[in-house]
Amino acid sequence: MRNQAPAKREEMRLIKAYQRVALGGGFPNPERAGCPGNEILRAMAFRKLGLDQVNDWIEHLGTCSPCFREYTELRKQVVWRRRAAYLSIAAAVILSLSLGWWMWRSRPPAVITAHNHIVADIRSPLVLRGDQGPGKGPLVFPRGFDDVTFYFPEGSRAGTYEVAILRQEFGEPLTRTSGTATIENEMTKMDVVLDLSRIAPGYYSVGIRPLGTDWSYYPVIVK
Amino acid sequence: MRGEFEIDPPVWIWEAKGSGSVVETDLLDAARRNWARMLSYSQRFDQDSAVAANILEIVLLATSRARKGQRQSGKPIRNLDSYLYVAFIRRFHRYLAKQPRLVYVGTDQDLDAHIGSRTPSTQPTIEDQLLAGELIQFMNQRARNTFYFREIAGYNWKDTARFLKTTVNSAQVLYNKAYGGVRDRIMRRKGSGRPGKGGEAHA
Q: Could you report the predicted ipTM of this complex, rounded to two decimals?
């Protein structure tokens, strides 16, 4: 059985050789004898000419270097136009997707007015990796107006505390409130109402601090 | 038929051949129109204008005979200029194939230029030029047109199939068969290192 690969390689070499010859002036036509003219070449290059008419000129195109050069330039234009069209379409798609995503992201979240009662126990330090016992994950606050009862870590003092929901630690509070913590049965607890009616679902931090001191942050999921 | 063709090429193309038979006027007009083209082509192979004139004369007579046959079969020549030019190239390469493969150079600079012209580049080499000529020489008109349609004009297989009035698969088979045959023939010639026996009889 014949090996087809060298034959194909040779075939390509012949084609390339022919194209080089045609482009390099191997078929001179100094007086442009029998040339079809730019209009027909353009129509051929842009595939606007019927195949029957193409048949009239195809042999000339293959054996006239000036015509082939002109035709090659026109074909380059076609390729560039096609690429430009594809790029425009791709750019339009990317732009509309980005715009859609941006609009979706920046739309105001629906206002939820439900009232929930939540117990937020932050007495034990959070375990963020490894084996987690029940109630050791991030706090979960439903959207709406939440009556939250905080149980503070052991040794926390009674007094006025600020509570805020932040996008990230050290960020600007999205909502904030304050309340008074009291000590009952050796536990420090505080009841506040957090307005989460306009906050989009997602991951946040809840910051708690006695007035005038630094924030302590705890992860929270708003659902 | 030959006259002062080197001074004013179109003048020597007369209407009657030596035997007295008449060559059609439109064929002579086409010959006059394309003479400069044919001469330039032959000069690229360092051939004398007399050689080109001789070949054109033979081509004109052969074409005139072929046209009579084609008229009877109802298949007229679509583009006389191209037909004549391609017939000339085919006949010209048959002539070249019979010539000894020697290149004479006058000076060292000419030799350097000749060697330089064989190095790979985007410019056509002498070998490319010969290969292109042989492609024309060995392909029949249908195969040639299909080759130009696909590889020169860059049409896809779907259009090529419509051009050949057949299916895509058949077009590919026809093309590969015709082109593969020519390729093998060229490779055989190159392998043998001897001039070939020439191409087909008709353009």
A: 0.70
